[in-house]
Amino acid sequence: MSDGHGPTPETPSGWSAEQPPPYSAPPASPWTAPGSPHQGPHGGPPHQQAPQGPHAPYPPPPPYQQHGQQYGQQYAQHYGQQPPYGPHMPHPPALRPGIIPLRPLGLGDILDGTIKLIRSNPKAVLGLSAIAALIAAVPLAVGQAFVIDATRVALDDPTGAAEAQLNSVYGVIGQYGGTLISYAVQFVVVTLLTGVLTRILGRAVFGGNLSAGEAWRLVKGRVPALFGVVGLMAVIMIVPLIVFTLIMVALALNASASDLGWLFGATILFLILYVGYYLFFRTRFAFASPAVVLEGRGPIDAMRRSWQLVTGDFWRVFGILLLTTLLVGLVAGILTVPFTMAGTLFGMLGADSIATTVLAAVLLALGTMLGSMLTYPFEAGVSGLLYADRRMRSEAFDLVLQTAAIEQQRQGWVHDSADELWHPSNSARS
C-alpha cells in the first residue's frame, strides 16, 4: 500500500494553504453520478443549497468518467472569457494536495514542483538516482584514471619511447573503452530510473508517496516499452551521424589537399545543423517516457502521443527543457569540478602505484556521481510535470485531477487507484 496517509509539509492536515476552505471534506462524494438519489441538485447531499453571493466557490467538477462533455463546458466557464461569477472576479486558488497546484503550470510551478518531489521523497528519489549515477560513473572514472596514469608516466620519463607508447595505448583504450561502457550502462540504468521516478511523480501530484520497491513493482511491466522508446530515439539521433561520417570519410580518402578546407567547413555546418536536429526531436519526444509509464502505451504510440502533446506549444516546452538542462548542468558542474580537479592532480602528481590510480578513480567517480545524482531526478521531474501541464492545457486534465483530489481529501488518503487517473480515457476532452 502506498504511503498516502501522511501530511505534507504545507499544512498539518496534508493540504496546501492554496486550497480554498469550501473544498474541505465535502459530505458527499463528488464522484457520485449527477441526479442520483444521494445527491442534491448542486452535486451535494439532498436539500443542500449551493453557497450564493459574490464569494461563492466554484462548484466541483462532475465525475471524471462518462462525463467528458460536462468537463469541457466547466473548463470553458472556469478559464474562458465569461467567468460564472462576473468578468472581474478572480479565480479561486487551485487545489494543491501534492507537489503542484492542480491547474495549468507556470515555469515557477514546474521547478518548485520538481524540488518538492525530491524533498518529499528523498530516500526513493535521491537514493535511486545515486545508485544509477554511481553505476554509470564507475566505468568512465576508471577509464579517466588510466588516461591520467598514462599521461603521468609520459611526463615523468619522456625518453622512454616504448613505455610511453604502451601507456598511450592503455590511455586510449581506457578513455574510449570506459566511455563506451559508461554510455551502455547509462542506457540501461537511466531508462529504468526515469520510469521509476515518473511513477513516483504521478502519485506525488496527489500528495501520496511511493517507496522505491513499490514504484518498481508498478513500473517493471513497462520496462520493455521504455527501452523501445530509448532505442527508437537512439536510432533517430545516431543514424544521421553515422551516415554523415561515412560520407565524409569516403570523400576525404579521395580528396586532394586543396579539398580539405571545404570538407572541414561542411563538417562544421553539419554539426550546427545537427544540434538543431537533436534539440527538435528531443523536444518532440520529451513526453514519450511519461506516456509509457503513466498511460500504458507502447513505444511508437507513446512517441506519437508526445508529438501531439507538444504540438501547439513547442517553443515553450523547448525553452523550459533547455533552461532546465543549463541549470542542472551548471549546478552539477559546480559539484563535479572539485572532485575532478582533485582526482586529476592526485593521479598526475601522486606516486606511481596502484593505490594512486584507485584513489584518483574514486575521486572522479564521486564527482560524476554527485553531478548525475542531481541531473537525473531533476530532468525527469521537469519532463513529467511538463507532461502534466500540457495535458491540463490541451485536455482540461486539471478538472480530472481536481475531482480526484476532492474525493481523496474526503476519504483522507490517496488510494492506489489514483494512478489510473493518468489513463487518456479520463481526459475531459477525450
TrEMBL record:
PANTHER family: EXPRESSED PROTEIN-RELATED, OS08G0107100 PROTEIN-RELATED. The lineage of its organism: Bacteria, Bacillati, Actinomycetota, Actinomycetes, Streptosporangiales. InterPro entries: DUF7847. Residues 30-53 have a biased composition (Low complexity). Keywords: Membrane, Transmembrane, Transmembrane helix. Residues 19-29, 54-64, 84-95 have a biased composition (Pro residues). The chain crosses the membrane at residues 125-148, 180-202, 223-254, 260-280, 314-339, 345-366. Residues 1-72, 78-97 are annotated as: Disordered. Residues 108-374 form the DUF7847 domain. This is Glycerophosphoryl diester phosphodiesterase membrane domain-containing protein.
